[in-house]
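Researcher: I'd like a structural prediction for the single chain below. Treat it as a standalone chain; there are no partners to consider.
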Amino acid sequence: FHDVFGHVPLHADPVFAEFLQGFGAVAAQARTEEETEHMARLFWFTVEFGLTRDEGEVKVYGSGLISSAGDAANALGPRCDRRAFSLDAVISQPFEIDRFQDVLFVVDSFQQLFEAVDEAKRRMGAK
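Model: Treating it as a single chain, here is the predicted structure.
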């Protein structure tokens, strides 16, 4: 269910698919445990639990949110701390996979995802 309803629709979107391809290329070049952890956090808070702002309204786009009514309700509800997306904030934020998220990040556009991958690539000295 999660893969079909969560991942497939986004993977079919050409812009998001391009982001995923770039993300994968950079993540594959992680050389240290810290770089791997940073890329895992970037994946978690974008691909799995990403939020976006559309005409002033926060909406879910992450696969974990799309495929779980409970996670989506939590993400948009009063208990979740929705923060502006930045690479530094995301890679510094730990997460637990077996509970509702206390903190999530909101992008204003998918362009921010490309910029975050480019910055991660630069910091890692990746090719």
